[in-house]
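Hey all, quick one. A colleague (J.T.) asked me to put the 0PR job into the tracker so the inputs and the structure tokens live in one place instead of scattered across chat threads. No bug as far as I know, just bookkeeping. Sequence used:
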Amino acid sequence: MRDLRGARRRDRDFADGRILGSMCTSPLAIARRADSMFVNSNLGNPGLCEGTRDLAHRVMEMCAAMFHGDGFPGRVTSGGTEANIIALWIARNVTKRKKVVLPEHAHFSLHKAADLLGLEKIMVPVDREFRMDANAAATAARDPDVAAVVCAAGSTELGQVDPIAEIGEALASLSSPPLLHVDAAFGGFVLPFMRDLGLEVPGFDFTLGQVSSVCADPHKMGMGTVPCGSLTVRRQEWLDAITFDSPYLTKAKQGTLLGTRGSAAVAAAYAAMVSLGREGYCRLVKKCLDNTRLLADGFSAIGAEPIIQPVMNILGVRAKDTLGAVRAFDSLGWNVSTTRIPSIRFVVMPHVTRGRILELLDDAKKIRRKGLL
Ligand code: 0PR
């Protein structure tokens, strides 16, 4: 136990409000409790664990409804990486094609997926607002060997939303269009609630007829525990394309990437989603957006400009010396990260309070005086 306590102390805790370099956060109390109730269950053997199988089903029903795909099937996953891999796996098997169109800002899990699946990547540049260039995406998608086009709804670096409606329209005009996968690993638990708050949100979900699949992670803005993601797809037969016989298990077939896997985070996702409901998520999202605005305005006030006006609760700030500034923040006890643009990246998760933002801005002034910002 001493070893464990020692190791645990060395793992940073979100609760101190100083981590702005992660997309995870302190899970909701009820999610932690749910997690600890299911440490002994295995979602990989649903015949033995019918309880968690049902919870997984209900989590997926809620995700489908959140993305206007009521009744659409899906899978809980271990996170965005697994969901992106499954989405491209489906695309490859359904279309029997060998290429994938990715935006330049695609999360590295999509590069992993392409590598694993033997898909050739066609990279599409971003526009001045760091959105996937719609014309270039449309041109790339005309290649008849393209299995899928991937767009982000909440890019990892800047939280930007690609012009998914425009790209979807271009795909609709093709005689045999590729699948369109939306990576909303982060934005999936932000954008629907921004819409509820009356903010303008570009189309990104199944309301767009061409969208084939959407992934969204309960372990990011969903307030669940790690590891939990989701993938919702438009058609059941697409899941059949990745389903295998599992003769030794209590169910004859398995349609997921992982085999044995924990149920705990699925129970936690269920607990977080049911207890927060849309209103609870709206409150959290509003708080994060307000704090992001405060941070962006604070940086502008000291002459360090945002790369783009924040779309959601992720902010990129231009620095004179990006790595030097990140190191300086680090030495003052802040965890922040960088983007390839380059800029300093701040993810304003629910554990980051208004008070912490004001402290961070005070420290930013010191870093500015050193000439790094
Ligand atoms: N898609 C997008 C748009 C993402 O931002 C991420 C994760 C993924 C997919 C992959 O999700 P999983 O990591 O759940 O498989 N983006 C974060 C990032 O790379 C992941 C992360 C999370 C990094 C917590 C650090 C950290 O402390 O920034």
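Adding what we noticed when we looked at it: Residues 22-24, 79-81, 84, 107, 109, 152, 156, 183, 185-186, 217, 229 surround 0PR (CB under 6 Å). DSSP finds twelve helices and twelve strands in the chain.
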